[in-house]
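Why this split exists: single-chain examples teach little about how molecules sit against one another. For that reason, every record in the complexes split bundles all components of an assembly together and asks for one structure covering all of them. Below is a record exactly as it appears in the raw files.
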Amino acid sequence: MDFEFIKEFTPMFITAGILTVKLAFFGIVLSIIIGLASMSSRVLNLKFINKIFDIYIEISRNTPLLIQLFFLYYGLPKVGIKLDSFSCGVIGLAFLGGSYMAESFRLGYEAVKKAQIEAGLSLGLSKFQLIFHVILPQAFFIALPSISANIIFLTKETSIVSVIALADLVYATKDIMGLYYMTDEALFMLVVSYLIIILPISLGLTLLEKRLSYV
Amino acid sequence: MFDILFEGNNFIRLMVGLWVTVKISLIAIVISLVGGMVLGILMSLKNRFIYAILKFGLEVVRIMPQIVWLMLVYFGLSKWANIHISGVGAAIIIFSIWGVFEMMDLVRGAVSSIPKHQFESAASLGLKSYQIYIYVIIPLAMRRLVPASINLLSRMIKTTSIVVLIGVVEVVKVGQQIIDNAVFTDNYAAFIVYGFIFFLYFAICYPVSKLSKILENRWSA
């Protein structure tokens, strides 16, 4: 191990790590929004929109993110839709993650007792009040373990964005291996970088679940 | 417009490329089923020490993206152990290890969902502990395990698509070659070829996950 070399290239990995985190953050936030939209549509019983969500979920869950990214980044520009690689990464991650989050929220919603919803309605709450004050708080806590699993999953999924020319951690690692033949150092930095990113998220979510387990 | 897919032997080449990843998935899933069954039963034997080790293994496998593991084996192992592994070999190793631990967790979940009285009744019939597992517990756990394993296969096929990152020539790589060849003749090549590969994956994974859902609903007793 050449620690001088590692010190020299740490900034490069920090930059790459920040890109990974940013990508994951935006992708996950959008995924959660898509998941919530899908749940709301179910609560409001919008038949047509539910159908669209169902089709989207099937397509998204049965294709790899890698292929989704290739299609977005290399395929779509040919029919006039040009996106920069970061947007493609975020859209791809949200497209994949949205269906996973939708499933989580659906399970949460189905576990909220019918009596709760009926009680809310009998109080004269509007459909939107019902979603925000009755269903969502309860569904969210029930779905939390599944949402956490998805957050970890999506953070790990960002590791393939080097295929659409994004300089993430894998990209940096391959770069160093290709340019300097410092295989050990590059792989060591790759593993450490991912541990620094994923371990805190994983531990944080576990603590959150423990704190909120009184629900 | 779709000519590009059927020019020369393009279609065959794409199929052969797809077969590479599907083959990796199939080999890995077979190893996962066998290994996961053994480890899953070991895990449910209530031996604290064995449980802790296996649980730790599962967490280690899960904490890192698969591409990181692939790179460690493909680039690292060849250097440290001085053995050259092909990309396909590295993929089979990593996806088998990943699958064994995922399967182990599924087996553990299925076994722990079986009511205690099943164990007790079997024991009171005078069955030995290995007989209890072979004749009673595993057959009962199957109803949960079959859909779950099919689902794991679907995940496996999707995840193995990343082997292109360690230079394995599979469907995406073949697609790129076809697009590069047609760069001056067909403007829509990338859209059509990647769209087709997208559809191919869907055509494989959708029936598999649908089957898993149907079995799950039929057997969810």
